[in-house]
Design a protein that fits this description.
Strand content: 15-25%
CATH topology of the largest domain: Rossmann fold
Distance between the termini: 51 Å
Strand order of the largest sheet: 7-6-8-9-10-13-14-15
Order of helices and strands: EHEHEHEEHEHEHEHEHEHHHEEEEE
Shape: globular
Largest sheet: 8 strands, mixed
Number of domains: 2
Length: about 375
């Protein structure tokens, strides 16, 4: 088999550069392991779009047209994913998207290994509402992720008989959050759902810490800030101890005590040292590249249709545990974990659920009931 090129398309600079750097590191580690096991049969093509949509398009076009890639692992935001998909369709390629997203999408040219709302937002609310109440305040990034996540949240809260006390949006790089925090202080919600991204998210968490310091009603144990996209790789941007006690949902945390993760971290320690903490972005990019490369090698071809068929067979062993790719939606079944931020910018896992079959359109059809939420603390 001749060497196969795979595109790795992540923004390691720009407003969400911390996520991109972590994702690229995970992809590179997977390429290294594939190379050690199989030689240089999988060759990466790295492009950094710097968070700019025109550069995403040019990067994807270069990979597909000029470099001969039939598979691209990458994009962080839903905006970038939606812009790149038509190019992938045009070249009959396959985009591997590994970030949590807002759902309501299933494309035969995309493998979704990131969680959709029935795998993150719905179990998150199942934990939150009985414990904190049904009167949240919603903040979000001013694009499709923020809009859709907050729309779904409104529906869930209304169905539960609750009330949304406020809803505000900010661009990625907006750090003037004082008016929003003041509004939250006046309205006194049960909790705050944050779908902010990048500098806006970091500024909000810092301002909310100050609010909690002057008014105990807004300390994390009383009114937490909760998220579906905040991970270990961004806590350094927030500041040590600033977000202690706040909550985030993910399909992976560095502290996960599973055989797969313990073995994974032992290999990582040899490469990055024992101090390196791994986030869901690293683990998910790693898993996507490993699944892609191994499916290509096992198939003897990078033909996207053949690779896609191979993925829909037996469970695939990953750092997230054994997962399945649904042949109809191209989505992975993924576990749910809820983490509480620790004083040293890690996460304690306080609730979990085994792998949940993806239901991107929230139809409720075909899917088995989700496993019971397991409360750790």
């Amino acid at each position: 088999m001749d060497a196969v090129k795979i595109g790795i398309l992540y923004s390691t600079t720009g407003p969400y550069g911390a996520m991109g750097r972590e994702s690229r590191d995970g992809a590179e580690f997977a390429i290294e392991e594939l190379g050690a096991a199989h030689g240089d049969l999988i060759q990466p093509i790295f492009i950094d779009p710097h968070g700019n949509i025109p550069e995403y398009l040019e990067g994807a076009r270069s990979m597909l047209r000029d470099s001969g890639c039939r598979h691209i692992v990458g994009t962080i935001t839903s905006l970038a994913r939606k812009e790149v998909i038509p190019l992938v369709e045009k070249h009959d390629g396959l985009l591997w998207y590994m970030c949590p997203y807002e759902g309501f999408e299933a494309n035969e040219n995309v493998i979704y290994t990131g969680a959709c709302p029935n795998q993150h937002l719905i179990p998150l609310f199942e934990y939150l509402l009985p414990r904190y109440g049904k009167r949240p305040y919603l903040v979000g990034a001013n694009y499709v992720w923020g809009w859709e996540m907050n729309r779904l949240s409104r529906e869930l809260i209304n169905e539960s008989g609750g009330e949304i006390l406020g809803e505000r949006y900010l661009p990625f790089e907006e750090t003037a959050v004082e008016r929003i925090v003041n509004d939250i202080e006046q309205r006194r919600p049960s909790f705050v759902l944050s779908n902010l991204i990048g500098p806006a998210s970091y500024a909000f968490l810092k301002a909310f810490k100050q609010l909690g310091d002057r008014d105990p009603a807004f300390k994390p144990e009383n009114c937490p800030v909760v998220s579906c996209d905040l991970t270990e790789c961004e806590l350094g941007e927030v500041g040590r101890g600033v977000a202690t006690g706040q909550l985030s949902a993910a399909s992976y945390f560095d502290s996960l005590n599973s055989p797969e993760n313990l073995a994974f971290k032992a290999r990582l320690a040899k490469r990055f040292g024992t101090e390196r903490r791994i986030s869901n972005f690293f683990a998910s990019a790693y898993s996507a590249v490993k699944m892609c490369g191994e499916a290509i090698l096992a198939s003897g071809t990078d033909d996207p249709q053949i690779v896609r068929r191979r993925l829909s067979g037996a469970p695939l062993s990953t750092v997230h545990g054994d997962i399945r790719i649904d042949a109809e939606t191209n989505h992975a079944a993924l576990p749910f974990h809820l983490g509480r931020i620790t004083t040293d910018n890690g996460f304690d896992i306080i609730a979990s659920r085994p792998a949940i079959a993806a239901d991107p359109y929230l139809t409720g059809r075909r899917k088995r009931p989700a496993p019971k939420l397991q409360i750790v603390s």
